[in-house]
């Protein structure tokens, strides 16, 4: 009954097999290998556009490098107060940008509301020397509360941001989980809605440790800068073929979508089960693979004593994360422990 995190899940065997296959003979280093090329091609096909991409091994590296490409040390990044870049990255965005600020907005369900962004931008005055003007907007999909932005919501936020000259970053550590129930295409959930740079996660959905930083449209011009910053930060491993092999296998056919569909279906099943209990209410809508539920301490401790692994979140709810390897058995066990 381990629902502590999708990062606690193992890597999928097909990813490991792809790495083993890539581990034969000599191959060009630093990203010049065939696997990185194929991963780039697959991403171009999936996003239906001519993009640039660079692979890193953690979501924090993807976010911090992505922000550093567009936000100067004297600028700021507007994000939600629940954003992973604010709460969980130990100042990596500030460090990689050379000192930029994060400018926090509130809003229910860990989502930025248009009216709040509008108000924040209305006061922006880059020529006022005492201000730290916003240079970027960063949003997360799935959000840190497991909720989803629609393509229309992203487009509305991007339009506001771009109207003030900001670039738009999307933290897509769980992009696949956001995508599969959305009814939108990958393009609609990203560049067609104004996203310039995307942290495209694979680790939480079956990879061993691999995320793509993707540059769309004009943002592609910053690709040399991204490479230089990755190298300087020590995020350009020589044997990048192993990252390329992971991303290539991840994007092979429906693999990444099927894994996310499974994790999301398990979350729906879990939510249904929890909702059936008198003392439990959902804290957030379940739009992906995460379930946040309010429950009494007595019930939570009973479950933990019987083997549940899940955290009480800072909003007081209990966070359950499903992943590609979660089984119906794992979920049914919870019911057994309660009854
Ligand atoms: C929304 C989000 N972004 C980024 C990250 C960072 O990923 P990593 O732990 O690989 O640095 C996480 C990790 O949990 C996350 O949930």
List the helices and strands and how they pair.
Blueprint: H1 13-22, H2 34-47, E1 52-56, H3 59-70, E2 76-80, H4 84-87, H5 92-96, E3 101-105, H6 114-122, E4 134-140, H7 151-163, E5 167-172, H8 175-180, E6 197-201, E7 211-215, H9 223-232, H10 241-250, H11 255-275, E8 281-282, E9 290-294, H12 297-305, E10 311-312, E11 318-321, H13 328-338
Parallel strand pairs: 2-3, 2-4, 4-5, 5-6
Antiparallel strand pairs: 1-7, 6-7, 8-9, 9-11, 10-11
Helix pairs in contact: 1-10, 2-10, 3-9, 6-7, 11-13
The chain binds pyridoxal-5'-phosphate.
The overall pLDDT, averaged over residues, is: 97
Helical percent range? 25-40%
Q: What hetero molecules are bound to the protein chains?
A: pyridoxal-5'-phosphate
Low-confidence stretches: none
The Cα radius of gyration reads 20 Å
Amino-to-carboxy terminus distance: 16 Å
Characterize the largest beta sheet: strand count, sense, and whether it forms a barrel.
Answer: 7 strands, mixed
Shape-level CATH architecture of the largest domain: 3-Layer(aba) Sandwich
CATH homologous superfamily annotation of the largest domain = Type I PLP-dependent aspartate aminotransferase-like (Major domain)
Q: Summarize the helix and strand pattern as letters.
A: HHEHEHHEHEHEHEEHHHEEHEEH
Number of strands: 11
Overall form? globular
Explain what the structure shows:
With 339 residues, the chain is an alpha/beta fold. It has two domains: 11-250, Aspartate Aminotransferase, domain 2; 255-338, Aspartate Aminotransferase, domain 1 (Alpha-Beta Complex), CATH 3.90.1150. It contains 13 helices and eleven strands. The chain has helices at residues 13-22, 34-47, 59-70, 84-87, 92-96, 114-122, 151-163, 175-180, 223-232, 241-250, 255-275, 297-305, 328-338, and strands spanning 52-56, 76-80, 101-105, 134-140, 167-172, 197-201, 211-215, 281-282, 290-294, 311-312, 318-321. It has a seven-stranded mixed sheet, sandwiched between helices. Helix 3 (59-70) crosses helix 9 (223-232), helix 6 (114-122) packs parallel to helix 7 and helix 11 packs parallel to helix 13 (328-338). It is globular and about 60 Å long. Bound molecules: pyridoxal-5'-phosphate. Pyridoxal-5'-phosphate binds next to helix 3. Residues 7, 58-60, 63, 84, 140, 144, 171, 173, 203 line the site of pyridoxal-5'-phosphate (PLP).
């Amino acid at each position: 009954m381990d629902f502590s995190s999708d990062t606690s899940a193992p890597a999928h065997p097909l990813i490991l097999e792809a790495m083993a296959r890539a581990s034969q003979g000599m191959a060009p280093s630093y990203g010049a290998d065939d696997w990185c090329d194929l991963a780039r091609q697959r991403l171009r096909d999936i996003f239906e556009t001519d993009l640039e991409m660079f692979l890193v091994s953690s979501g924090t590296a993807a976010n911090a490098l992505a922000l550093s490409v567009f936000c100067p040390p004297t600028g700021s990044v507007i994000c939600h107060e629940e954003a992973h870049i604010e709460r969980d990255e130990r100042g990596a965005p500030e460090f990689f940008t050379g000192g930029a600020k994060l400018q926090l907005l509130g809003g229910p369900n860990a989502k930025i509301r248009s009216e709040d962004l509008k108000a924040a931008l209305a006061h922006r005055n880059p020529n006022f020397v005492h201000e730290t003007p916003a240079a970027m907007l960063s949003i997360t999909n799935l959000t840190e509360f497991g909720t989803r932005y629609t393509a229309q919501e992203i487009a509305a936020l991007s339009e506001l941001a771009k109207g003030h000259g900001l670039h738009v970053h999307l933290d897509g550590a769980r992009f696949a989980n956001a995508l599969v129930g959305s009814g939108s295409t990958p393009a609609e959930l990203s560049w067609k809605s104004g996203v310039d740079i995307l942290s495209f996660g694979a680790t939480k959905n079956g990879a061993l440790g691999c995320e793509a930083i993707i540059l769309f449209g004009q943002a592609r011009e910053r690709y040399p800068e991204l490479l230089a910053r990755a190298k300087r930060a020590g995020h350009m491993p020589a044997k990048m073929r192993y990252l390329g092999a992971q991303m290539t296998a991840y994007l092979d056919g429906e693999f990444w979508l099927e894994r996310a569909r499974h994790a999301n279906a398990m979350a729906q099943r879990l939510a249904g089960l929890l909702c059936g209990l008198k003392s439990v209410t959902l804290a957030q809508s379940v739009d992906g693979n995460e379930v946040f539920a309010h429950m009494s301490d007595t019930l939570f401790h009973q479950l933990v004593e019987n083997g549940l692994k899940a955290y009480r979140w800072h909003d007081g709810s209990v966070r359950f994360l499903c992943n590609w390897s979660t089984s119906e058995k794992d979920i049914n066990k919870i019911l057994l422990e309660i009854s």
